[in-house]
Structures are given as structure tokens and as C-alpha cells.
Amino acid sequence: MIFFSRVLSLLSILIIAWAIWRLIGFTLAELPGRTGHGQGTPAIDPARQMDRWLGALRLVFILFAVTTLVTHGYWALMAAGPLREDPYFVQLKRTRDQRNRRIEESGLRGWIFDRTGSVDAVLAGYRFSGEELIRHYPLGARAVHVIGYHSLLRGSAGAESAYGRLLRSSLSSWNLFDTRGVVGEDLRLTLDRDLQRAAAEQLERTGKPGAVVLVEVDTGNVIAMASAPGFDPSASESDARWNELRADPRQPFVNRALHQYYLPGSTFKVVVGVSALENGLDQAVFECRHGGYQPPGSRQAILDDGGEEEIHGRIALGDATRFSCNQYFAQLGVELGHERLARTSGHFGLIINATPQQSRARRIDDGLWNSDNNDFLRVFSPNASRMVLGSATPAIDLALESIGQGYLQVTPLQMALVAASLAHASGEMPAPRLDLLNAPVVRRRPLTPQLAESMRQHLRGVTNRPGGTAYDAFGRLLREGLSAGGKTGTAQFEQGGAHRVDSWFIGFAPADRPQVACAVVVEGGGYGGRVAAPIAASLLGLSRRQGLITLRKVP
């Protein structure tokens, strides 16, 4: 559209130039010696020529007015909202529009608070440095990927960018009462400041990159969304520090909860389990044998993490989930087939066989968040979780995808929503919400209440029964009276010639009436039960102390 606008502008210039040329030509025709008398040339009737000229000029300026109206209508309504946005123009506006800078300098932005709205729970505000008021972020690097930053030098990111119009709403040039010192509207997010800090601290202790997402099951409220590594926006203004951050191979600018792809490992077995329940294969029994399972047409054997020493014998869905038996779920996935597994995966929001164009479209308009704010969606829409699965998929790839390996990419937010769907009493997937501006809504319903309850029963065995892969991590929480359910994951792949093992856990608490769901991933963390699960247990325990989880009273 920018190209079209440029063409219209050039056309307008050509029309004006033509009109001027015609006017000069008409004036010359009126000069003495140009009437044609005595030369055998018909005389020019000035009045008639003038009428003809005025008619042409009227048409010219009608076309010019229409061209101008279309051009300015586009820039006013469709370049940066409210009807549509041109990403290229918005980027130019954000980086080069000096008028926006003058507006920002004319007053103060609104403050950002956590879910309590308390002055003791400020996420972004101001403090006096001794010389001037500066934008202050109390959690620093522990919330930078969600709260972001605002700087006249560096621009905006995170919530500061997503809600920029609200935060400086009183500073609009349309406000006739605008004066220096005006403060924009405040914003209250769904985050819990203590949980956000704790989630980031847990990731920091591992010394590895990763992400944590916690959501309320019934409302979709995001109560923590941490990504590591981060950086302190208040201490990153210098060019040297900024360039250092940009060159950091750990990519501290990336919000890994939304914009980093991961293999889900065994956490994806919950989707395969749901597919089995949907299609009447929940009673299926498979053999976990010495030597592993070889899918039809393949010479590659699928083993469990313990190698050939880990043998479960004949095993059903419940114990296979508790022990996270690779051989069982590989056979179950092949038995289900690509069509049924693809259908269930699609119910949970994964795109099957997505083209790059479809992935980009989903990234821009994911239909996931509880928001119609284009600025918000541009900042917080996650990468499109996707998998390759079709009639041409070999049995070995189908088996690998059924244990969370192979051609499968997800984000931590997506897996947190999978956990929330399983935890929801009606099997609904709530639309995630980061602010309190819109009422809670449901985007999809991946499974029925009966299937959700059946799957929760299996997931409780992972955390609450001896032998479960997360039993050791959740033992203390269980002794304190808080039971949970979930699934560990250990995603293994080659990266840069080295073997990397990501640690995963998705789950919910309390087990009997889930209220909070979570997803934790630690890059290179190792087994999910040893690294990710303890982080999840700690944060779910803190959720209880923060009042986000209430236990049912026993009569």
C-alpha cells in the first residue's frame, strides 16, 4: 500500500504539472499574432476556449481531490490503525517520527501495576535520580521480557510498547487540555509480582536459558511469564552495553516463552494420550521390550531413557504415563495413525504441515490472546506451534513425534495452555490474558470434560505416586497438603555438533480442583524430573501462599 500511495502522490504531481502546462498553452494562444487571422487559420473563440478550459480544470481538480482523499484516508485510518496497520509504516513511525518523541517528552507515562493494583507492586513507574525523573523497573531483568522498557533512545518493548497508547493517552495531541507534566493512564496487569520474581530467580539459579509460564485455569490470566537470560533495562542505555547485549550468543532480547521454538519431549505424550482416549485406544497394551521398538519399515529402535536396561514389559496408558515409557507411546502413535493424531493436535492449537506463510500469518494474528489490540498482538503473539504429519509421514517419524521428538516445534506458552486445557473442568482452553481490560473468554475446547478428567487421573500418577517421573520433585508439596498433576519431558537433539537435553515440565495444581497451570523449560537442563519439575513445584507452592490456589476444606 505504501507503493500505491507513492504512485498516487506522483500522479497528483503529474496532474498539477499538466494543468499548469495547459494554462500556459492557453495564455500563449491569447497573445497578439496567435489568433490565426490573415493566415488561413480559423479564428480562436476565447470564450469557448475558456469554457472548455474551465471544464477540464474542474475535472482535473476533482480527480486531484479524490486522489488526495484516498491517500490521506489510508494514512489516517489504515496505515497505523484503527482499521488496519501496515507493519512497515508502523516501524518507520516508531523509529523516525519526531512528533511522537515531542509528545513523549511533554509529560509522563502511566504506571504499570501487578494484579493487586497496589503501590507496593509496581512493575514500571518513575523515580527521582537526583536530577530528573527516570522510568524505573523494580524487577529489572526478571520482568524485562514482559514489562519491556521505554526509552527515547532505544524505543519501546514489551508491555511498554503493547500498551503505549494507553500509557500516554492523556498526552495525545488531540487533547485540548494537554499541558506539561500530564501523566498518562495507569495499567494493571494479571501478573503476580512475587511469582514473576520467583520464576525468574528459579531460572537464574540453573545458569541456563529457559522460560516459565503460569496461567490461571479458569480465567487464562498469565500470572508469571519469565524468560532467561534477561537484562536490566535501567542499566542498558549506553551504546557499549546495548551492543554487548546484541552480540550475546545467549540472545537476552528474546522472550523465550513466546518466540523460541522447542522440542516438547515427553510432555507431548499428553496429547497422544488424549488422542487415544478420544479414539477408544485407552485400554491398549503394548510391550516395552529389550532391544526397543522398531516401527514398520525402519531399522531404528526407539528406547527409553535408561536404554536397553529400562524395560517395562506389557504396559497400559496409566503406567506408561507415570513412567514416561517411550516404547509405549511410540507404538500408540503408530497405532493411532497420522490422521487421528493430527486431528487431536489441531484441537490443542498446533498447525499441521504449516507453510512459512501460514506460520507468519499465525504469528501476526494468532487468534490466541484475549486481546484485539494490534499493538499488543504485534508484541506478544507467539511463534506458531506446528508439526509435520501426513499420509506420507514414515512410521519412524510418526513414532518419534509421538514421544515429542522429530518434526515438532512448540512454545512454552502453547504448552502451558495445553496443561490448562487438561486442568479445566470442561476441557476448555482459556484465551491467555495479560491485562484486566477484557473479560475472560474461551478460544477452543480441545476435549470433553470426561476425557479431561480421565487424563488428569493419569497425570496425577506422575507427581503423586511412587515411581512417577516427578514424584521426588513434588513429594514435599504433597506432604504440605497440595497435590498436583503433570508430565515431565526430556527433549534430546544435536545442536552445533553437541548433544543437548532440554528439561521440561507441564502441570497443574491442586490435583482435585486445578486452579493454576504451568509450563517450565530449561535449555540443556537434563531430565525433566530433576530440573524443570522442582521449579514447577516451587512455583505452585508459592501460588498457594499468594492466594492463587485455595484448597478444598475437608468437612
Structure explained in plain terms:
The protein is globular, with a radius of gyration of 31 Å. It is α+β, with helices and mostly antiparallel strands. Among the domains are: 2-87; 97-190, Penicillin-binding protein 2a (Domain 2) (Alpha-Beta Complex). Strand 2 (112-113) and strand 3 (122-128) form a beta hairpin. Helix 1 (2-29) runs antiparallel to helix 2 and helix 18 (449-464) crosses helix 19. Helices cover 42% and strands 15% of the residues.
Number of strands: 20
Query: Poorly predicted ranges (pLDDT <50, ≥5 residues)?
Result: 34-38, 172-180
Report the CATH superfamily of one domain: Penicillin-binding protein 2a (Domain 2)
CATH architectural designation of one domain:
Alpha-Beta Complex
Q: Kindly report how far apart the N and C termini lie.
A: 66 Å
Largest sheet: 5 strands, antiparallel
The strand line-up of the biggest sheet is 10-9-20-19-18
- Which class of one domain in CATH terms? Alpha Beta
Determine the structural class based on helices, strands and strand pairing. alpha+beta
Shape: globular
Estimate the strand proportion. 15-25%
Average pLDDT taken over every residue: 86
At the fold tier of CATH, the topology name of one domain is Penicillin-binding protein 2a (Domain 2)
Cα-atom radius of gyration = 31 Å
Q: What is the helical fraction, as a range of percent?
A: 40-55%
Specify the number of helices.
Answer: 20
